[in-house]
Inverse folding.
């Protein structure tokens, strides 16, 4: 079996960072100490040779990650192409499919599937979705396209629209949810965040401002389908905001009824009662819409992905 290997070419956006700073910022599925261990074990290479955490990277450098071989969990592989040209590819990703290699996943990722099925040698995810989140993912086919698309995201010129199925009867009118996200130190889950609405700003340097436009669209049996348009792009923004407002996303093991569910999930100890409380095997969050101007032609692209069957069956 060939050794697993992930390769990225460094563009101007990341040039000048240290190796460990780039890994921590771009690939958040491992934390800084874990990436330091991977570097120490020789699994990170730059331009074919070993490197060290504080080494500076330059535009055009080739960074390789050689993760250890392990058995990979099964995933959904039936993505759908929504748009493609010489510069861009947009796919509708199923739930239970990671975008990028990390942890136990390498060949069972959208990254690997696109390499095998679409013949793409180098893949630039302009943005990513969590493994359990379904919907639209934008892929650039060159560093130039990735840089131009990234600039549009950074400038706020891209509109993303999500659909979330939540517990409770969410208001049908539009709500402008502004506030702050901070780490939830009361939780055993290290990456969990807490939403504070405007006027309740917590102290400390880690608070990040956030804003999400929310609107209930349909209700049934104590559940509501909510349209969410993030005006900022923070980690777990939609899920943490909805949970903080009292409307957790169905199936969410971190922001749902009990974050101990996440601990039991990663330890493969979910009970039948746990699954009943979750209602769905994954978090009911779907990236349903993406509007962006083409990085080269400047033509406006407005793309949509229909609500997937697992979510539709609960609200249909």
């Amino acid at each position: 079996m060939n050794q697993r290997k992930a390769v990225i070419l460094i563009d101007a956006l990341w040039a000048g960072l240290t190796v460990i700073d780039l890994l921590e910022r771009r690939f958040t599925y491992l934390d800084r100490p874990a990436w330091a261990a991977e570097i120490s074990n020789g699994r990170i290479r730059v331009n074919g040779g070993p490197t060290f955490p504080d080494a500076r990277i330059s535009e055009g450098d080739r960074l390789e990650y050689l993760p250890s071989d392990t058995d990979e969990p099964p995933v959904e592989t039936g993505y759908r192409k929504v748009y493609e040209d010489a510069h861009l590819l947009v796919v509708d990703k199923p739930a239970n499919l990671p975008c990028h290699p990390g942890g136990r996943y390498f060949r069972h990722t959208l990254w690997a599937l696109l390499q095998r099925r679409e013949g793409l040698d180098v893949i630039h995810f302009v943005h990513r979705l969590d493994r359990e989140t379904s919907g639209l993912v934008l892929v650039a086919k060159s560093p130039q396209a990735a840089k131009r698309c990234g600039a549009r995201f950074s400038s706020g010129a891209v509109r993303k629209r999500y659909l979330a199925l939540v517990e409770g009867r969410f208001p049908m009118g539009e709500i402008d949810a502004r506030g702050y996200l901070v780490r939830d130190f009361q939780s055993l889950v290290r990456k969990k965040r807490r939403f504070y609405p405007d006027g309740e700003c917590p102290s400390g340097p880690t608070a990040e401002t956030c804003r999400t436009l929310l609107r209930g669209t349909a209700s049934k049996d104590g559940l509501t389908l909510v349209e969410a348009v993030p005006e900022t792009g923070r980690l777990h923004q939609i899920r943490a905001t909805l949970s903080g407002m009292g409307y957790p996303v169905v199936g969410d093991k971190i922001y749902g009824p009990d974050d101990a569910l996440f601990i039991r999930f990663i330890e493969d100890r979910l009970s039948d009662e746990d699954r009943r409380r979750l209602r769905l095997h994954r978090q009911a969050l779907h990236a349903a819409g993406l509007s962006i101007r083409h990085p080269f032609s400047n033509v406006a692209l407005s793309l949509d992905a229909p609500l997937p069957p697992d979510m539709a069956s609960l609200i249909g």
Summary: The mean pLDDT is 91. DSSP finds eight helices and 15 strands in the chain. The chain has three domains: 6-65, 80-157, 162-283. The longest helix spans residues 143-154.
